[in-house]
């Protein structure tokens, strides 16, 4: 289901081209003993926190500047602020990420860690151990096969969609964790109504994640009211923080404790 060149923004097209050309894992299939994502969400709920997947993102095509902070230190500060899980960018060219950063983060925290990358073929699963990996429906030719291959290795899989048609593809392939990305990949604009339009069609037994554009406590409440079991938040935590770990922790806490204050 690879997008044609005129269906995505130039920045996204460049990311996909890099993903197609990137080397895959070289040591054969890896085996992962993953930390339970569902248990992490339940723990957050039981503690009165909004389940947030906080993202370690040095930079992106839609962000200004580049953070040089130690990723393990950032992740630890996010967990201290209440993050239920951590997302780590491993795409090097456009997001400044690396598999090594993910490994360091996973060693530093005790919550599930998501590998956020553009995986387009099975061999690219065999790069680094993580608890969850991301598969984007729009960019995968054989979703069912890649989903099965990831699960065979022990990964939990977050399947990302942008509309109802992609949701149907994800569900038919057997996705049990679905993320709805509020960012339009053609124009790179964010609209929270994207999640609100897709969420009612997600079965109750599927874990539903709201992604992108969640910046304020009001956004958190809005996505939760629309049915989000958890939220994936990057820029609102990373971009608006100063130079201290306390800033990262406080930005995370501001979003994870929203429902306690309402």
UniProtKB/TrEMBL annotation:
Residues 29-241 form the Indole-3-glycerol phosphate synthase domain. It comes from the Archaea. Residues 250-262 have a biased composition (Basic and acidic residues). Keywords: Amino-acid biosynthesis, Aromatic amino acid biosynthesis, Decarboxylase, Lyase, Tryptophan biosynthesis. Its EC number is 4.1.1.48. Gene3D superfamilies: Aldolase class I. Transmembrane segments: none annotated. GO terms for biological process: L-tryptophan biosynthetic process. It catalyses: 1-(2-carboxyphenylamino)-1-deoxy-D-ribulose 5-phosphate + H(+) = (1S,2R)-1-C-(indol-3-yl)glycerol 3-phosphate + CO2 + H2O. The keyword Ribosomal protein does not apply. Pathway: Amino-acid biosynthesis; L-tryptophan biosynthesis; L-tryptophan from chorismate: step 4/5. One of its GO terms (molecular function) is indole-3-glycerol-phosphate synthase activity. The keyword Lyase applies. Pfam families: IGPS. Residues 242-262 are annotated as: Disordered. Belongs to the TrpC family. This is Indole-3-glycerol phosphate synthase. The gene is trpC.
């Amino acid at each position: 289901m690879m997008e044609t060149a005129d269906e995505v923004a130039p920045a996204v097209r460049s990311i996909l081209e890099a993903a197609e050309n990137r080397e895959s894992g070289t040591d054969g299939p890896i085996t992962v003993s993953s930390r339970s994502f569902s248990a992490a969400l339940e723990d957050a709920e039981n503690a009165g926190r909004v389940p947030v997947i906080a993202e370690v993102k040095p930079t992106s095509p839609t962000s200004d500047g580049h953070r040089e902070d130690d990723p393990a230190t950032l992740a630890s500060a996010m967990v201290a602020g209440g993050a239920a899980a951590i997302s780590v960018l491993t795409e090097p060219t456009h997001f400044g990420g690396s598999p090594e950063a993910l490994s360091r983060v996973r060693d530093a925290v005790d919550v599930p860690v998501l590998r956020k990358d553009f995986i387009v073929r099975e061999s690219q699963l065999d790069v680094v151990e993580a608890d969850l990996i991301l598969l984007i429906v729009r960019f995968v030719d054989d979703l069912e096969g890649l989903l099965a291959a990831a699960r065979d290795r022990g990964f939990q899989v977050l399947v990302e969609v942008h509309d109802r048609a992609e949701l149907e593809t994800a569900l038919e392939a057997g996705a049990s964790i679905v993320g709805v990305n509020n960012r339009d990949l053609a124009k790179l604009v964010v609209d929270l109504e994207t999640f609100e339009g897709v969420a009612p069609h997600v079965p109750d037994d599927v874990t539903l994640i709201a992604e992108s554009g969640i910046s304020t406590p009001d956004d958190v409440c809005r996505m939760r009211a629309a049915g989000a079991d958890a939220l994936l938040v990057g820029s609102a935590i990373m971009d608006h923080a100063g130079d201290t770990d306390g800033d990262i922790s406080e930005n995370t806490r501001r979003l994870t404790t929203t429902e306690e204050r309402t």
